[in-house]
Amino acid sequence: MAINLSAPDLTQHPPRSMRAKLGGYVHLPRLLDKGRAANADKLGAYQYNSPLDQLFFGFAGIDAEEFKAQLATGKSDSEMLAWIGEKSSRTPFEIKAWSDWAIEAGPGSADSHVWFGGVFKDAAPAREDIRNFADLIDLDDYVSFGGKA
Prior knowledge:
The chain has seven helices and two strands, in the order ββααααααα. The chain has helices at 28-39, 51-60, 64-72, 77-87, 92-104, 110-123, 133-144; strands at residues 21-22, 25-26. It has a two-stranded antiparallel ribbon with strand order 1-2.
């Protein structure tokens, strides 16, 4: 089965890793996949405008519904990046600093630790290399579609 990346079906495969970058932004390719899937009613177990998505939207100063509406027009990744560049005043230095932080971020609050530990315990309790949200999300995507941790 071929994967249509312009209209991803996240009931059949995960979105791109949050480690993937576009325009220096980590998570943006994943967010594009989730937004396109939400528009196509193919989001599956994923959530559009999740807490991680909200971090991106808050940093970039972009409205989640406006972003999704732009995706609905059929814009490519490059066209979406250009649109973000028009809407956001973030500099390349700020984007790099935010992306470096986001890729290493882990649970902070007690509730976040509980959630993190629960997902980790269910997915791969014997693993000792899962240290941050990026590690956990990659692992969860993998095991959710049949991979063995």
